[in-house]
Amino acid sequence: MPPHRLSSQKESDVMRILAAGDHFVRPALIRAAVSRELSRTGRELPEFAELTLPWPHEPFGPVAEVREASGTEDGLVEALAGASVCVTQMAPFTERVFAASPGLRLVAVSRGGPVNVDLAAATRHGVGVSFAPGRNAQAAAEFAVGLMLAAMRRVTVADAEFRRGVWRGDLYAYEESGGELGGATVGLVGYGAIGRIVARVLRAFGARVLAADPYADRAAVEADGVEPVELDDLLSRSSVVSLHARLTEETRHLIDARRLGLLPHGAVLVNSARGGLLDHAPLPGLLRDGALGALALDVYDIEPVPADWALRDAPNVITTPHLAGATRQTAHRAAAITAAEVGRFLRGEKLSHLANPDVLAAGGA
User: Any keyword Oxidoreductase (predicted)?
Assistant: First the structure.
């Protein structure tokens, strides 16, 4: 194992920081946030280098062994020359990159989970990896509620028809009209930072909120005025269901054909979390026979979706291209959270969001 670098270097050894941004969390935002953080302590600012990755103008995807990354290993290795710290959202930190960057000590990832980093490789090479939980929680929560309202009230259908020159006054007919969040039972699958904000907004509308999350503290959920239930119970009781769980091997296709069959006839389903949570195969049939009243998706099993995507012709579907977290506030918040981690690291303090705590075992910190 290489020498442990996370805690054995002195502050003066950190001379260069790479801001590996993209066209959302821009290098300039990262640099400004880190500079503000360090200036508060009176530290001399280190040298900065910048790299701009092509996302979102080019979709992210797998790079070597990591997923949801942007850019190339070669470009990142070149940009990392002499850097001790890198702040990034999408750069592909693979075994090859770590092996080629012996001076690297910290990778601060400005997203909710470091899925663009090979954590095992980082640990082997003595590099700490931090992340930015909650950076887009407000944006994602607001977006999810917006999708619920649009699906329930058929906003996109009415808008599309209006633009075609069709006045859909018939949408006021009883059988065509939508429902209200006030008085509805809404089920949240996953009750983390995003789910909690969604619940607060829904309760302000007057909805009854259920939550299914085996990792959430039951007393805390109840203190929010939300009823904690098992997943099958939630699905059978909710007229609106919104997914907010993380995608893991345990949660892949968590909502499958059997569980979709538990939904009340005409229920609304929203997924703005991760496409893999939902089995897409049964959805076209459920929409066409009315068992599923409406479907709102911001995430998909394949991104971008193929031209022959089965749901393209299904009725009552709202689609957006993975935009739930896309606010300027999210970009600034992401940069600020990671900058705070860089500041803690340079001051020799404990990181608040260390993704690979085993890296400390070699020398403690």
Answer: yes
Q: 322 an active-site residue? A: yes
Identified catalytic residue from 322, 333, 344, 353 = 322
Residues paired with residue 108 on neighbouring β-strands, in sequence order: 87, 130
Q: Could you count the other beta carbons within 10 Å of the beta carbon of residue 180?
A: 12
pLDDT in tens, 314-347: 999 999 999 999 999 999 999 999 999 999 999 9
Fold of 137-319: Rossmann fold (3.40.50)
Mean pLDDT of 238-246: 97
CB 126 within 8 A of CB 324: no
Can you give the residue ranges of every domain in the chain?
Answer: 11-135+327-362, 137-319
**Mean pLDDT, to the nearest integer, of 344-361?**
94
Find, among 144, 362, 318, 356, the residue nearest to 244 by Cα: 144
- 274 is a catalytic site residue: yes
Please say if 125 is a catalytic residue. no
pLDDT tops 50 at residue 12: no
Architecture of the structural domain at 11-135+327-362: 3-Layer(aba) Sandwich (3.40)
Catalytic residue among 303, 312, 328, 349: 303
